[in-house]
């Protein structure tokens, strides 16, 4: 079993609190927009509204000590893009429940809660690794070094393949 640091546990708990608040924003948005645009569009729009508010709270509270090396717009876009797996888990669960039972259509909060639970772990790990990461925890990438031409360096002369030698021996030039 992997060792969990106290920082990771604290971040997970804060992320969960933000997620519960996000469920409130998500639900409020669905119920507010549903009479005007229908359940499907309200559910999709609500995700992006709740995700954007969650990103801001996570930036300011959950990951405030590690995750602000990017411009806020870039980080917000990274959050939405990175959590696309969570989006498909979340809204996939929600729409599946909507289609399975009329109870979930009548009370969308039930489907939204199940969807939030379905996407939470993926969103936490992706957010922690790709969006709100500190430079020190990233693996250092090694790059190839370009060495300038060095004429004094010895070059092996007999590196021609045996096939080249055979082909050259057959050609008669002259």
From TrEMBL:
The chain crosses the membrane at residues 12-31, 37-57, 77-100, 106-126. Residues 14-132 form the GtrA/DPMS transmembrane domain. GO terms for cellular component: plasma membrane. The keyword Transmembrane applies. InterPro entries: GtrA_CellWall_Glycosyl, GtrA_DPMS_TM. Keywords: Membrane, Transmembrane, Transmembrane helix. It is a multi-pass membrane protein. One of its GO terms (biological process) is polysaccharide biosynthetic process. Its main location: membrane. It is found in: Membrane. Belongs to the GtrA family. This is GtrA family protein. It comes from Komagataeibacter diospyri. The lineage of its organism: Bacteria, Pseudomonadati, Pseudomonadota, Alphaproteobacteria, Acetobacterales.
């Amino acid at each position: 079993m992997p060792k969990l640091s106290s920082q990771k546990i604290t971040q997970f708990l804060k992320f969960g609190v933000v997620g519960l608040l996000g469920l409130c924003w998500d639900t409020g948005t669905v119920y507010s927009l549903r009479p005007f645009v229908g359940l499907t569009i309200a559910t999709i729009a609500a995700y992006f509204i709740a995700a954007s508010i969650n990103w801001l709270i996570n930036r300011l509270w959950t990951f405030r000590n590690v995750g602000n090396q990017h411009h806020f717009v870039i980080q917000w876009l990274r959050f939405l893009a990175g959590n696309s797996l969570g989006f498909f888990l979340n809204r996939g669960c929600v729409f599946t429940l909507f289609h399975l039972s009329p109870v979930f259509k009548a009370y969308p909060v039930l489907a939204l809660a199940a969807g939030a639970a379905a996407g939470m772990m993926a969103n936490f790990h992706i957010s922690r690794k790709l969006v709100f990461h500190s430079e020190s925890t990233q693996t250092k990438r090694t790059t190839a070094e370009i060495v300038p031409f060095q004429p004094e360096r010895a070059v092996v002369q007999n590196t021609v393949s045996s096939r080249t030698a055979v082909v050259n021996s057959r050609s008669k030039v002259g």
